Amino acid sequence: MSTVDSHLRIALHLAAAGVPPLPLRAGKVPFGNCRACARNACGGRPNMKTSGPCACPRPCHAWAAATTDPTVLRSREWARAWREAAAVAYHPGGAGLTVIDLDSADAIAWARASLPATRTVRTTRGEHWLYQGAMQSANAVRPGVDIKSSMAYARWLGPGTGATAALPDAVRALAVKPHPSRRAPQTLTVPLRGGQGECRHRTPTYLERGIAMAEQRITEARSAVHATVYRTFLAVLSTHGRCGCITDAHIARLFTAAQAKGESPRHCTDAWTNARTRLGL
After folding, report:
1. For residue 186, which of 41, 71, 120, 122 sits 20 to 30 Å off, Cα-Cα?
2. Three-state SS for 70?
3. What are the residue boundaries of the structural domains of the chain, listed by start?
4. pLDDT at residue 48 in the model
5. Contacts of 239 (CB under 8 A, 6+ apart)
6. Residue 279: its pLDDT value, please?
7. Model's pTM, two decimal places?
8. Strand 127-132 with 165-166, pairing
9. What span, in angstroms and rounded, lies between the C-alpha atoms of 25 and 87?
10. Does the CA dihedral 150-153-155-156 come out positive or negative?
11. Helix (H/G/I), strand (E/B), else coil: 174
């Protein structure tokens, strides 16, 4: 069996199991954007039918190219990628999984002492620990430890051994705990409030509940993140934007949630500005 056939066979096997695969080039990197998507011509949005306006059928949007559609995997547009592929990767978050990438003996020792046992896959330098449940991805949460889940990819190195445990709170906490190596989310620089009209909200609880629900909606988005962020901003502003009760702290919370899903500060600011413009604020 040729390497091309082997990679495609693995990809189709993963897709049939509900795990979205994608091809990797040498160096464990995804394929670069095609000419139609180069230099942000397509808007820079993720692809593959579910994540934005780009309709390019080629596997050129990193983790967002991962798909469980066998027709796409076998398509002519993907044929060159499989010929040039050096490995197969998958999108853990798309399969409802989280991968703890342990890159050293010390990291493995920490995991064995701190986390519940789960399915384990041997890697070149360490181990992948797989848990059932998706979350935001994060790099360098501890020395030699990365979290790969939503909006990330992991190399397929086999099914591993052991039963897959539920994602523990200890892992979720790693992604939100502040670390010196992780850059703090940037806040917006556009006006925050309408400041026009009378506030009709009887208690601060109403606003707090609305902001919390908006954060949750963004955090739980598994596809179409750009569109979800914009629609969420639009909903918050349509309810609270004219009375001036939204504070910098409220908007910073929304921006933080969006950036945790991979949105850039510029995209956040653009989405906020576009929502305000649509509502005439």
Report:
1. 41
2. helix
3. 3-90, 93-176, 204-279
4. 39
5. 210
6. 79
7. 0.63
8. parallel
9. 7
10. positive
11. helix
Contacts of 174 (CB under 8 A, 6+ apart): 138, 141, 142, 145, 147
Give the separation between CA 33 and CA 70, rounded to whole angstroms.
21
CB 92 within 8 A of CB 171: no
Residue 61 token pair: 């949007």
> Which own/partner pairs from 197-202 qualify as long-range (CB within 8 Å, at least 24 positions apart)?
197/242, 197/243, 197/244, 198/243, 199/243, 199/244, 199/245, 200/243, 201/240, 201/243, 201/245
Residues 6+ apart with CB under 8 A from 203: none
Q: Locate tokens 């430890």: which residue?
A: 145
Structure confidence at residue 191 (pLDDT): 47
Judge whether 66 and 48 are in contact, CB under 8 Å: yes
Q: Divide the 281 residues of the chain into consecutive groups of 10 and give the mean pLDDT of each group.
A: 82 96 90 79 53 72 89 93 94 94 95 96 96 90 92 93 95 69 49 49 69 86 83 85 76 85 81 81 73
d(CA 60, CA 46): 9
Amino acid present at 210: G
Cα(69)–Cα(140) distance, rounded to whole angstroms? 32
Q: Does an H or E element contain 148, and which?
A: strand 145-148
Tokens encoding 116: 């519940």
Residue 143 structure tokens: 């020395």
Largest CA distance in the chain: 71
